[in-house]
Design goal:
42% of the residues lie in helices and 22% in strands. It has 436 residues and is an alpha+beta fold. It has three domains: 2-134, Beta-Lactamase; 140-312, 2-Layer Sandwich (Beta-Lactamase); 364-425, no CATH class.
């Protein structure tokens, strides 16, 4: 318990109660302060109150709360105290948001407060007792659970992986009590390189530069973590040998520390890395490790689900392509079969026409001289009969028959016995008697 210097409270009304409060809250993490007067002078307060609200700000004697913590006045805290003093009624606030500090040192905090009036023996309000419990961690835990549930719902409904990873990175950056820049790199199938997955707050030039970096010992924080399959903590990039090849790039990007955690599948295979960058050199706390583990596991779930879904889609695509190929083959086979049947029918029809033509020509009288000599005529004996599928026929000598068969389409040799080719094979030279 800290009492304001120069103030002696022994012997005053209600002193026993004040002593009890000091004993109760002296070493507690619960904040307690006793304020007096219309200016709300900090009469007594426990270390937790000063550590939370005053920090390193100097305190010399009873100081108005509005001067000790000036940012409270702008956020309505002093107005609540004024109201309690004016009405004499207690006031309770839950999850009261207060921004403590200013500039780069500002931090958002949440509190449950109870403001109770202090009275003298006559009942006149002389001051206010403030009891507060910081609920920031509980609030952040609640936010974490809400955001984590939302991410799991995204994964369950198979949202695009880039959307899930980007949302996860932004969530961590929001939840972290200190500024952090999150990056997720995804391993290529061979596990030898890492590709950009998500890094919404890192500069584009930085993301492009590390896209495709190799995995290996000493390749920055992420390449080394991927190679080792274990977290790699670099608290000061400016001096760590892992960053020798990337130090200038990190300096341009304005990052000074990088903690990388490998993202591993259930079978231990590498899925990627999850990195937390900081603007200043920094040593991680237990809460940082816990946050990294939670979201590394979440990222693993998202990436594995994405790989499974991609494999399923690829299998479906291959199956669909196989079905299409089979259907095409069946259609082609049917078309070829139909075409073959058409050709067979056409051939049968042609053969029938040829047989019919040969039969028709068999009854035509056999001339003595060749009728295939053209305009000049031919005096050679008519030895062979040639016909075509259109029903035309003529007798001629061997030479002119052969010439006709070369120059006339679908010409064939026929005889009265419809022997066709047999008549040609068994032909006799001119003047030779026929041998039956």
């Amino acid at each position: 318990m800290t009492a304001a210097p120069g103030r002696h409270t022994h012997g005053e009304p209600g002193q026993a109660a004040e002593d009890d409060l000091r004993a109760l809250f002296g070493r507690s993490t619960v904040m307690f302060a006793s304020l007096v007067g219309p200016e709300h002078l900090v009469d007594t307060a426990n270390p937790a109150f000063f550590a939370t609200f005053a920090g390193q700000r100097a305190r010399t004697g009873p100081t108005p709360l509005g001067e000790l913590v000036p940012e409270l006045a702008e956020q309505g805290f002093i107005a609540v105290l004024d109201e309690v003093r004016r009405t004499g009624e207690s006031h309770t606030g839950h999850d009261v948001r207060i921004v403590l500090g200013t500039g780069l040192h500002a931090r958002e905090a949440f509190f449950d407060f109870t403001h109770e009036p202090r009275r003298d023996p006559d009942g006149t309000v002389t001051g206010i007792r403030v009891i507060g419990v910081e609920t920031t961690q509980a609030k952040h835990a609640q936010h974490l659970m809400t955001e984590h549930r939302a991410l799991l719902e995204q994964i369950a409904r198979q949202a695009p992986l880039t959307e899930v990873l980007d949302g996860m990175a932004r969530c961590i950056e929001t939840l972290s009590p200190q500024e952090v820049l999150v990056s997720v790199l995804l391993a290529e199938p061979d596990g030898l390189h890492l590709r950009h997955g998500a890094a919404p707050s890192l500069p584009d030039f930085y993301n492009r530069a590390i896209d495709g970096i190799a995995t290996g010992e000493g390749v920055g924080s992420c390449g080394t973590a991927a190679h080792r399959r274990e977290p790699v903590i670099v608290t000061d990039i400016a001096t760590d040998p892992f960053w020798d090849d990337f130090r200038d790039l990190a300096d341009r990007a304005g990052v000074a520390a990088c903690w990388s955690t490998p993202i591993l599948a259930r079978d231990g295979s590498l899925l990627g890395t999850f990195a937390m960058y900081h603007r200043v050199p920094r040593v991680p706390q237990d809460s940082d490790f816990a946050l990294a583990r939670v979201f590394a596991d979440t990222a693993a779930l998202a990436v594995e689900r994405h790989h499974d879904e991609q494999a399923r889609r690829d299998a479906e695509t291959r199956l669909e392509a196989a079905h299409d190929d089979l259907a095409k083959a069946v259609r082609t086979e049917r078309e070829l079969r139909a075409e073959a049947e058409q050709r067979a029918a056409a051939a049968a029809e042609l053969a029938e026409r040829m047989r019919a033509a040969a039969a028709a020509q068999a009854a035509v009288p056999h001339p003595e001289r060749c009728g295939l000599g053209g305009a000049d005529g031919c005096t050679a004996p008519a030895e062979l009969k040639v016909a075509d599928s259109w029903g035309d026929s003529s007798w001629g000598c061997q030479a002119h028959v052969e010439e006709a068969m070369i120059n006339v389409r679908s010409a064939f040799i026929a005889n009265e016995d419809l022997g066709g080719l047999a008549a040609y094979i068994n032909r006799r030279p001119a003047g030779r008697p026929r041998v039956d």
